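Worked example

This section walks through a single chain of length 385. The input is the sequence exactly as stored; nothing has been trimmed or padded.
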Amino acid sequence: MTKDNHRQQFPALANKAYFNYGGQGPLPEPALEAIYQAYKRVQLGGPFSAEVGAWVVQEAMLTRRAIASELTVPPETIALTEDVTVGCNIALWGIDWKAGDHLLLSDCEHPGIVASVMELQRRFNIEVSICPLAATLNEGDPVAVIADSLQPNTRLLVISHILWNTGQVLPLAEIVKVCHQTGVKVLVDAAQSVGVLPLNLIESGVDFYALTGHKWWCGPEGLGGLYVSAEALAELHPVFIGWRGIVTDSSAKVLGWKPGSQRYEIATSAYPLYAGLRSAIALQHEWGTIEERYAEICRLSKYLWERLSELPDVECLRKSAPEAGLVSFRLTNGMPHKKLVDLLEKQGVMVRTILNPDCVRACVHYFTTEAEINTLVGAIANQLV
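Given that input, the structure is written out below as tokens.
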């Protein structure tokens, strides 16, 4: 499928130059139609009936399989959630914390995850420290920084696979190996990596991997997942509990948890979104393999990085070409970043600000075009005259 034909399936791309895939991807027309047809089927069959109940079970199974295939893991290791933050909270709160335990967090994590960790610290009197990964963007070794920050009482490392503010790709397998040598588990915020990087979570050894479908997969908002490794499953207790995660007998007596990661699912959800996410994932495969899509993302992000580097009042945070689709830059002429973002949006060019570090972030996907990138760079140049 050509890129032009592919782009025509995304209504949001018809009237703007879009660079906010790291915040939310545009929903393609086939996914919209799949969601509508699923909602219609629920109404025609129920909405509450044995027929629809069986359909929901089937839809959930198919969606876990679709997600698992993208991560190269067994379907039973996947719990369906609403988003990355919910997945991270399942892992954070499901650990049996004791006073004096240590949690290690990087200095590039999303405020939602930082706030969750702060509440863990308050409630359970655990120790929390922050390792300086931001400083390794252009030099230094993030694996060594993490290794040096581990303590004898460390139980969990919380990091992102791709840092949401700078776009740095962390060497996950090497980090997990260092942590596992001392019995430390690893929770990954995968908001910026799923749908971008070729993934094999079994090979990486990671314990918990929280993802969403609404960013780089371009699926519907409100649907994500959590991978829990077979080894980590036994030690992660369900905290948010509902009928979807439990087993009962014929008298509704609770017997225990569902097998695998399904035990972390809770209750009624917007089930038609399942079809929408599967449709969005399938559409991406029509363009190319994940390896081909990732290569195109890197090619286009390098092009954007090179074009931005040509502007006299723009400084890219990275000193070399990006390894993913996030390109962060700052203005050196004193113009507030929010002002630039607001001015660009009025021209139909969508980017966003990042507060820490203070910068502007533009995201390119595999179906971004050089013409779009030229439009963005030209619009920035015009504002800096």
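What to look for: The first strand starts at residue 17 and ends at 18.
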